[in-house]
Amino acid sequence: MKWHWLPNALSSFRLVLIVPTVLFLLDEAYFLTLCLFAVAGVSDGVDGWLAKRFGWTSRLGAVLDAAADKLLMAAIFITLGYKGLVPLWLVALVFVRDLWIVLGAWYNRHRLAEFEVRPFLTSKINTAVQICFVLLVIADAQWQLLAPSLMAGAVAVATLSVVASGLDYLQDWIRQLRQASRSRS
């Protein structure tokens, strides 16, 4: 039996998990939200490992994986903002950064013959920081773990991470556009 479809199925499963995760969060069932978020995180790790380990990568898989990750985080951040658990300006910043990356990549890909989008260390750190931040916020809503000053510190760290990652992408795109401009001259 061939299992090459399994990573795509796990990514699709993560997409399906978005709705109940958001509904649990809206219903203030924070423990269940944490559980589903953890299941989504584990499935993300497993699908990536399977795809790389067994060569079960595909263009569809790359799109599904990225879509599941971005949509889950966007839905969680929007819901946390709606519930008043994170500042709305932070929700907007996260959303604008992701939109900026997608639109910038699309624009440059169509403008440059050899444009490449590469994940930066700051982007990987930002993803980890966002996941930890979401877990912290939901856990705090469940168990009231943090003093307000500590939560403010967590917001500051998340903000710096989003900004640093966004600036790395901007700097790289400008560099690639300049190189392309020089090579055409």
UniProtKB/TrEMBL annotation:
Its main location: membrane. Its EC number is 2.7.8.5. It is a multi-pass membrane protein. InterPro entries: CDP-alcohol_PTase-I (IPR050324), CDP-OH_P_trans (IPR000462), CDP-OH_PTrfase_TM_dom (IPR043130), Phosphatidylglycerol_P_synth (IPR004570). Pathway: Phospholipid metabolism; phosphatidylglycerol biosynthesis; phosphatidylglycerol from CDP-diacylglycerol: step 1/2. The chain crosses the membrane at residues 12-39, 120-139, 145-170. It catalyses: a CDP-1,2-diacyl-sn-glycerol + sn-glycerol 3-phosphate = a 1,2-diacyl-sn-glycero-3-phospho-(1'-sn-glycero-3'-phosphate) + CMP + H(+). Keywords: Lipid biosynthesis, Lipid metabolism, Membrane, Phospholipid biosynthesis, Phospholipid metabolism, Transferase, Transmembrane, Transmembrane helix. It comes from the Bacteria. GO terms for biological process: cardiolipin biosynthetic process. The keyword Transmembrane applies. Pfam families: CDP-OH_P_transf. Belongs to the CDP-alcohol phosphatidyltransferase class-I family. This is CDP-diacylglycerol--glycerol-3-phosphate 3-phosphatidyltransferase. It comes from Natronospira elongata.
